[in-house]
Structure to design on (170 residues):
């Protein structure tokens, strides 16, 4: 307040009005700058949130490091959720069990995310796959980082190495 009184005494009433106008204008500019910074930060935060990606460490040559590994035909698909977190529950008819640590029936339900950033994958009904995965909350899961392959596209040397029970131990 002392500053205002000095200006009023030195410059007169007109200078006082100009000074007050400039102060209000500067405050408005500060608010506009704050709003721009807030908008930029919001956009950056949202961009980073959708910048996640799937990173697989190592490429498995069989499902022996997984909780289960089977050969089966996808006989049904049930979509769940909405993008980007949508999932599929695949109903699979099991033809062969390569590895498991618990009893399995011959018709299984296996969950998988669809979105690539969640290491998702899509399986085609009617096609035969080797599917490897893990158990979470008593549900079977798989993803693109595990050994899940179309059986017809697996090279012969990998097909010979799929059975985790009859492998030589070194």
């Amino acid at each position: 307040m002392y500053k205002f009184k000095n200006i009023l005494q030195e410059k007169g009433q007109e200078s006082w009005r100009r000074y007050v106008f400039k102060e209000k204008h500067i405050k408005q500019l500060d608010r506009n700058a704050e709003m721009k910074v807030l908008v930029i930060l919001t956009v950056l935060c949202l961009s980073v949130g959708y910048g996640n990606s799937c990173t697989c460490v190592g490429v498995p040559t069989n499902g022996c490091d997984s909780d289960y590994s089977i050969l089966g035909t996808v006989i049904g698909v049930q979509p769940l959720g909405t993008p980007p977190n949508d999932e599929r529950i695949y109903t699979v008819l099991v033809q062969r069990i390569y590895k498991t640590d618990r009893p399995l029936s011959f018709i299984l339900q296996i969950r998988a995310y669809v979105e690539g950033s969640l290491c998702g994958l899509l399986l085609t009904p009617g096609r035969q796959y080797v599917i490897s995965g893990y158990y979470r909350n008593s549900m079977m899961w798989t993803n693109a980082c595990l050994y899940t392959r179309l059986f017809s596209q697996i090279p012969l040397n990998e097909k010979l190495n799929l059975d985790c029970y009859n492998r030589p131990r070194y």
